[in-house]
Design brief:
about 170 residues, mainly alpha, Ferritin, membrane, Tryptophan-rich sensory protein, TspO_MBR, transmembrane, transmembrane helix
């Protein structure tokens, strides 16, 4: 008996525009706190940084790439009719809210310990979102793995900034 590989259709033009819309939306939402509370403050510049603190350009490059991957992942889940879609979307919104909350907590409030609590909660929500996305679309879950890796690094960095400056 011959097994056939299913043929995957390419997304149509409207679907591609929707995907681009999701990417733009996630990038806009993710960038709002950074625009409103610039890390270029005397307080932040005065902090002792750990040896592994990356160059400043790494942050906008990494976040643009990560928000783009998140937008694509969100689009994949949004267009699915799989069970668990609503939970996955709800978790995505929750983790995004914590992501957005981190910047003002750290830079505007100048509260690295508060920000550390937020980023730990964010990490937990990202892992839950990945698990929920995996039930809907494995590709969407895979697209969130670099985000989890970066937030893991950012959590360690946040901890060290707090520890070195407490």
């Amino acid at each position: 008996m011959e097994t056939r590989t299913p043929i995957r259709r390419l997304p149509d033009g409207g679907s591609i525009l929707a995907a681009i819309g999701f990417v733009v939306l996630v990038n806009v939402v993710g960038s709002v706190p950074g625009v409103l509370s610039s890390p270029d403050t005397a307080w932040f510049r005065s902090l002792e940084k750990p040896w592994f603190y990356p160059p400043d350009i790494a942050f906008p490059v990494a976040w643009t790439l990560l928000f783009t991957l998140l937008g694509i992942a969100l689009w994949l889940v949004w267009r699915s009719d799989a069970d668990g879609r609503r939970l996955a979307l709800g978790l995505f919104v929750a983790q995004m809210a914590f992501n957005v909350a981190w910047t003002p907590a750290f830079f505007t409030l100048e509260a690295p310990l508060v920000a550390l609590g937020i980023i730990i909660a964010l990490w937990v929500l990202i892992t839950a979102t990945i698990a929920a996305f995996r039930r809907v679309d494995r590709r969407a879950a895979a697209l969130l793995l670099p985000y989890l890796a970066w937030v893991t690094f950012a959590t360690v960095l946040n901890f060290e900034l707090w520890r070195l400056n407490a």
